[in-house]
Amino acid sequence: IRGLMLKAGNAFDIIDTNQSKEVSQSSENLIALLTPILKSFATDKALDITNNALQIYGGHGYITDHGIEQLVRDARITPIYEGTNGIQALDLIGRKFNIHEGLLINQYMNEISKFLSSNKDDNDMHKFIKLFEPSYIDLKDCIDFIKKIEIKNVKEINSHAVDFLNIFALVAVGYTWLQFIRVSLDKIKEKDDSFYFSKIQLL
């Protein structure tokens, strides 16, 4: 998730460096798309992780002796800050989904598709892409399904908002890992490096 955040941060830097209008617009589109995904997915996971940490202590996790309950309280507010995660999900499936006839989402999905195509014949990448592709296909199916819903049927569209955000976030994080692995494989070909090797092993 930090890698995905850095990708969004890099998009801000690209805009600030006075790139061409096309490149700047592409970066703005990426930021607009990733904002609800990053905010919601990161904070939901923070809450899940701290809740699990609390349960490790059993009943003692609920009291103040170990400090875990404080972390749970701190994490609990994050899905509410800066637009609740439900609102972020509605923003993604409602506003972001339809901007310029789906340009934001199509642009990102095309980027993933190009990456997969350029690496499909790489034996080192094959097993990682094989793990990723089913989820990518599921996301594409979700997008196609939502597009088929009558745009006036707002309640039907919004009923899929949270699930759509979650699968999009998982695919985005998975794609970021593939990019990590691509870089790591290239780096260890130049020189054995435990840092890059650990990135590959972690997956």
Description:
By secondary structure, the chain is mainly alpha-helical. It contains 9 helices and no strands. The protein has helices spanning 2-16, 21-56, 68-77, 85-98, 103-119, 123-148, 154-158, 161-190, 194-202. The two termini are 14 Å apart. The mean pLDDT is 92.
Principal-axes shape call: globular
> Span between N and C termini?
14 Å
Query: How much is the radius of gyration in Å?
Result: 19 Å
Largest β-sheet summary: none
Topology summary:
Layout: H1 2-16, H2 21-56, H3 68-77, H4 85-98, H5 103-119, H6 123-148, H7 154-158, H8 161-190, H9 194-202
Descriptors:
203 residues; mainly alpha; 80% helix
Describe the structure in brief.
By secondary structure, this protein is an all-alpha fold. It has 9 helices and no strands.
